[in-house]
Design brief:
This protein is an alpha/beta fold and 302 residues long. It is 48% helix and 20% strand. The chain folds into two domains: 130 residues, 3-Layer(aba) Sandwich (Rossmann fold); 163 residues, Restriction Endonuclease (3-Layer(aba) Sandwich), CATH 3.40.91. The protein is built from twelve helices and ten strands. The chain has a five-stranded parallel sheet, sandwiched between helices. Strands 6-7-8-9-10 form a five-stranded mixed sheet, sandwiched between helices. The chain is elongated.
């Protein structure tokens, strides 16, 4: 898993200073810092991170660090949290509830950076060593989300949960930013747009973005018309996206595969992710390698 850490503090200088100091001590990690409420909420929802460092007290915010941690646990099954504050006693009861989640790595006092940074460095390194030894926690979280999305009965929630699951899936593959429900210049709505920011020569050849269409309809199959409509959306990106993904909790009709073969001469490629492919990705320890193999099997040039 990519070692992406987000730092959340309502004081800009604190957030930036902590990110700078930790980047110096841990150059192989990625540290992003956020200090305004809108950008913090957007980062929690749309950025990929597996650890968050959060200050509890947020002056002039509508939400404090406890609420932000709870939101992280709601939307990101991969992330754990380090709580930092000079006001731990003030939040004692709420912190007690957070600890019961099992996702609090540590609670630390804010100190002078020269004393505090080495402590944080050790805590962060220990956390990632544990994840590297046992990746099953991530796979189990994905499987649980996938099951919930498939079993949801409310039509709107069903679609929303599947989109969120796919967003988490691509973040676990290594993509850093996934945007949801985006309209392009022609007003075509795309369920997910993935910024293609992985440093991989094979993946990079598919353009700056990857489009994803999500169909959470286990009974219905993806048909030829679904393919044609999605292919049109891909064409409208004017070369910014050369790879599209049709993802379904169901299956793909035979005539859809036939249409895909007929269009295989196009520079733009469409990958089908149905139950078998999704389950392969969920169970894979190396999800990027499995994702590349699926592309190879389906959409490589004939």
């Amino acid at each position: 898993m990519r070692r992406n850490v987000i730092i959340i503090d309502d004081v800009k200088e604190q957030a930036e200073g902590l990110a700078k100091g930790l980047s110096r001590l841990l150059p192989d990690y990625s540290f992003e810092n956020y200090h305004t409420e809108p950008e913090i909420l957007d980062a929690i929802e749309n950025r990929f991170y597996s650890l968050a460092i959060i200050d509890i007290r947020m002056d002039d915010f509508s939400i404090d660090g406890i609420g932000l941690a709870e939101k992280i646990f709601e939307v990101n099954p991969f992330a754990n949290v380090i709580i930092v504050s000079a006001f731990k006693d003030e939040y004692f009861l709420k912190l007690k509830d957070l600890l019961l989640t099992g996702k609090i790595v540590d609670i630390q006092d804010k100190e002078d950076f020269t004393i505090w940074l080495p402590k944080l460095k050790e805590t962060i390194e220990t956390y990632y060593k544990k994840i590297d030894k046992d990746p099953s926690e991530i796979n189990n979280a994905l499987l649980q989300y996938y099951s919930e999305a498939k079993n949801e009965t409310n039509t709107y929630s069903k679609g929303e949960k599947f989109e969120h699951f796919m967003s988490l899936m691509f973040q676990s593959i290594g993509f850093n930013q996934v945007l949801k429900r985006v309209k392009d210049q022609s007003l075509n709505e795309v369920d997910l747009i993935i910024r293609n920011d992985i440093e991989d020569n094979f993946i990079n050849k598919f353009g700056k973005y990857i489009l994803v269409e999500c169909k959470n309809k286990p009974v219905e199959k993806i048909n030829k018309n679904d393919f044609i409509v999605f292919q049109s959306k891909l064409k409208n990106t004017n070369g910014l996206a050369e790879l599209g993904i049709l993802a379904t909790t169901g299956y793909i009709t035979k005539n859809t595969y036939v249409e895909a073969v007929r269009e295989s001469g196009e520079a733009r490629k469409i990958l089908f992710l149905s139950n078998p492919e999704i389950e392969k990705l969920i169970k894979a320890d190396n999800k990027l390698s499995t994702f590349k193999n699926l592309i190879d099997q389906q959409v490589k040039d004939n």
